[in-house]
Amino acid sequence: MSFKEKNETIKEKVRKAFSLSADSASHEEIRERLLDGGQVTGTNMCVLVCAMVIASVGLNMSSTAVIIGAMLISPIMGSILASAYGNVSADYPLFTNHMVGFGLQIAISVAAASIYFFLSPVKEPTVELIARTGPTFYDVLIAFFGGLAGIIGQTRLDKTNTVIPGVAIATALMPPLCTCGYAIANGRVDMLLGAGYLFIINAYFIFLAASIILTVLKIPKVKELSEKEWRRHRLRMVRNTLIVAIPSIVAVYYMVI
């Protein structure tokens, strides 16, 4: 076998090793999984409130184990993945519907946390609360690669998905929202801004990662957009990514110097 043939063989093996389409579920199954996970139902909202109170107690008592437990039972990531599906499939009514549901989840989560911290006798911020108020570019990397792992896990043929629990812990959507509730209940604008920005980083880069993988998997589109429309869409994504990421890069710069 010549060097060129060996080189091509190695490339083919690497390509197969990292192929996303080789063991992916059907487009219909992917759609069903993601949209079912993004439903904002009465049951999901009750579970969400329970998760928020548990996470708030964990943050208030500085208990990492309790915080992790709350992140595992929270259904909030489902709305992000469903919104990404609507975005990639160009189904904008679907995208809008899940974004509205996501906004409702955020509002209820922050309200539940605010009520808890308003009633809690422990008013001093714990280490766990303070840790959620200083996001940097490292949080961007965690959210992006966690989002990649999460959506890849959700689109596999194997329905036994062990990835999402790990992603829920790594990307930590719940604790920043709880910290926002603490900040509102105790009048801490500085903590509200820091925790709110951390939540935006986590939510946006999970959304971005999911959109990229669904695009690679060639999710069918509801309608075909013109090249000009797709170019405008891509430019918006690049603009939004820069807007969200730049403050975190600046934060790392000041940490280094």
Automatic annotation (TrEMBL):
The keyword Phosphoprotein does not apply. The chain crosses the membrane at residues 40-59, 65-88, 100-119, 135-152, 164-185, 197-217, 237-256. Signal peptide: none annotated. Pfam families: DUF389. The keyword Signal does not apply. Keywords: Membrane, Transmembrane, Transmembrane helix. PANTHER family: AT15442P-RELATED. This is DUF389 domain-containing protein. It comes from Methanobrevibacter thaueri.
